[in-house]
Amino acid sequence: MKLIETAIDDKGESYICAQSEPKGKEFTGHILTDLFFANNIPPDILVSSAEHAAENFNLAPGEIRFLRSDVYPSKRVYDTISDKENKPPFKKLFYHSTTTLDFVVVLRGKLILIVGDQEIPIEAGDCIIQRGAAHAWHNYTDEVATLIAVMIGIAPPAQFKLIP
């Protein structure tokens, strides 16, 4: 994947300010590639992407993150977890919540979105608006699936339950 960043200079002229092939960070079950991060909404268009700790999915209110997630086949990942590591039940693998409003698009592959006890099949082209709900992405195929998402940090309501 190529990432191209445009900008405007002091005189308002447009230019390409950066081109890269970002490398993702590997987590259990997926690779996360940050594409953009800003500390405030709206982001300052005169400032390039800020540094962000890839492990932190709970954004502060007003932070924004644009990312790509490559999701590995869930069964293969589950089978690599030792029983000595407090192995969760399979359906609870990857189950979490974040202090964000997320806009997600499936770029390729097929996934199952688990929310509570519901399982919704999703595939390339499907869009998900994630509003603080605890959830998991499961890949029941043998192919890597890819999501692209924009996460916006929110002040969670009183009833929000953080699931790490």
CATH homologous superfamily assignment: Jelly Rolls
Shape by Cα distribution? globular
Helix content: under 10%
Could you tell me the mean pLDDT?
89
- Please list the strands of the largest sheet in the order they lie side by side: 3-4-5-11-6-9
Largest sheet: 6 strands, antiparallel
Strand residue percentage: 35-45%
Structural class: mainly beta
CATH 2nd-level architecture = Sandwich
Radius of gyration: 17 Å
Order of helices and strands: EEEEEHEEEEEE
**How many β-strand runs?**
11
Spatial gap, N to C terminus: 29 Å
Q: CATH topology, what is it called?
A: Jelly Rolls
* Integer tally of domains: 1
Task: Note the total helix count.
Answer: 1
Question: Class in CATH?
Answer: Mainly Beta
Structure report:
- This protein has 164 residues and is mainly beta.
- It has one domain: Jelly Rolls (Sandwich).
- Helices cover 4% and strands 43% of the residues.
- It is built from one helix and eleven strands.
- It has one helix spanning 74-80; strands at residues 3-8, 14-20, 25-27, 30-38, 64-71, 100-108, 110-115, 118-123, 127-131, 136-138, 145-153.
- It has a six-stranded antiparallel β-sheet, with no helix packed on it. A three-stranded antiparallel β-sheet has the order 8-7-10, with no helix packed on it.
- It starts with a strand and ends in an 11-residue tail after the last strand.
List the helices and strands and how they pair.
Layout: E1 3-8, E2 14-20, E3 25-27, E4 30-38, E5 64-71, H1 74-80, E6 100-108, E7 110-115, E8 118-123, E9 127-131, E10 136-138, E11 145-153
